[in-house]
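Data availability (excerpt). The following record was deposited with the supplementary files.
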Amino acid sequence: MHFNLNRTGQKTIALMNSLRQNNISCFMMDKISKALEFSNSQNIPNVIFIGEDEVKKKKFKLRDMKTGKEQMLSEKELLESFEKKAI
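Predicted structure:
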């Protein structure tokens, strides 16, 4: 799992802690283009974008790196999404 940090550090760290407590590996980077390039090179299946709008809406953009499909999900929905993928 990969994160983009954009003036949303506290929420990003809180979400990362929640994901890690659920055994979901994650890290963050500050440049979107480098993050996407790195994620592709490492075959990382998903990227979460957290910006000011996402924090305000309490929904986070999840991108499937294989299909390019993006979804806006709450923290609970993110966790449920990863639980389904693990099955």
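Summary of structural features: The first strand starts at residue 2 and ends at 5.
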